[in-house]
Amino acid sequence: MAGTIVAHHCVVREHGYVYYVTADGSVGASRMKWAGRPGKHIVARHCVHRRHGYMYFVDAHGNVRETKMKRRGRR
Q1: Domain-located, residue 56
Q2: Are 40 and 18 in contact (CB under 8 A)?
Q3: Which end of the chain is more exposed for a tag (fewer CB within 10 A), N or C?
């Protein structure tokens, strides 16, 4: 899997949710439309310290990973 692990087992994933890292480094969860009434909430507060030029995501095991963004035409 691409990226390095920044936070180990930060989230216990549940079926029917999409997990994302917010701008302040917290992990949020949003219910999928097919799983019932949609709604968003914060799962873990301030899990990571975000750096400029990196993308953050939650993998299948609940770890938060970071990977360098590829931007064409920019230095």
Answers
A1: yes
A2: no
A3: C
The pLDDT tens digits for 1-51 are: 688 999 888 889 999 899 999 999 999 999 988 877 878 889 999 989 999
In a domain, 19, yes or no: yes
Q: What is the mean pLDDT of residues 48-69?
A: 92
pTM for the model = 0.80
Q: Pick from 4, 20, 11, 17: which is nearest to 57 by CA?
A: 20
Length of the chain: 75
CA separation, residue 74 to residues 52, 69, 71 (Å): 14, 11, 6
One-letter amino acid of 65: R
Domain count, the chain: 1
Q: Which two tokens stand for residue 32?
A: 């999928």
Give how far the C-alpha of residue 67 lies from the chain's centroid of Cα atoms, to the nearest Å: 12
